């Protein structure tokens, strides 16, 4: 590609990024906050009011992901068929309704049912966005695009911890609701409102983007079409193979390991910080705890984007996934063995950085060899199987907390899981060997 063409292409991709990335990040901010805000509700009234043990709280937190698992693949195939604009708007409307109803949950059983239905409603959102980004960004720029989108995770955890804490404290008694109920109510409404914005704002494909010039549409559509055809020609992965191949299952395990660390932190970090009072004599208000919870994620957001850009610039993928997993996996079990809260938070921060840095480059791996319906199904399957960790992490962590009386055993499981995932990522490499058979089955 000539320098002039490359410069023109960079301008088009910058224009695309400015148009869609802030909006997608906003959607994921709201999505992730609605998914994990139960972590703030638990130690701030929900567990006491509904009579939940740590195991029961972990089960209610994690049951979301079983509902998510059931409809993940068909939801992503529907997005591929009907278009991202319509399907994402539908997902957001239904999840917003369920998230809002959580404010009025009367007992533990209803909480479990609604958390399950929240997972059903949200199924397909995250892999749908990952698939959508393959419609707009060539592979060489994809990890950076995914990082900009997924920066919403640490931002949501950072801002969300503060926002949720403020809503719990200052919302107590409004409409006769407990603070945690008021938080669920306020944080569920934006998803419903953004569903209508999504319907009118998003564009399904570059060919339909009226906000690009004709030349820009033709260049981007042509570039992505050439890449799509080259991928299909080289690897020949049909949908059936993408749903059954051992490589997809191995990638799902790697993602399981990354997400295990993410959700163990997301659901239990507020509880861990609340426990600093008993362990270290540290006294924090609800708002102070929220601000402390934000620190690891603020740092992770900054390092995450830098790491993904470095991966795109060098073209190296497997170590950009495995190395942060190794560092994070070693750091997390150390956190609660340290002698003061500052050292413990430093170790937690290193783990958060490792988890967040591994995520965007990981999602560049399946799109290296999947395209079309195979990409829709394969990405969704990896995400759905990997997100079993969303059930396993809070449930196992809570169960081990009840069994041993300490968070330490659960965090050792997190560390071992992340290190094992890193080893598998290194063994897989960035791309499969080129298929030799005409139908792509070896």
Automatic annotation (TrEMBL):
Residues 20-433 form the Major facilitator superfamily (MFS) profile domain. Keywords: Membrane, Transmembrane, Transmembrane helix, Transport. The keyword Membrane applies. The chain crosses the membrane at residues 12-30, 50-71, 87-106, 112-133, 145-168, 180-202, 248-274, 286-307, 319-338, 344-365, 372-397, 409-428. One of its GO terms (molecular function) is transmembrane transporter activity. PROSITE patterns: MFS. Its main location: membrane. Pfam families: MFS_1. This is Putative tartrate transporter.
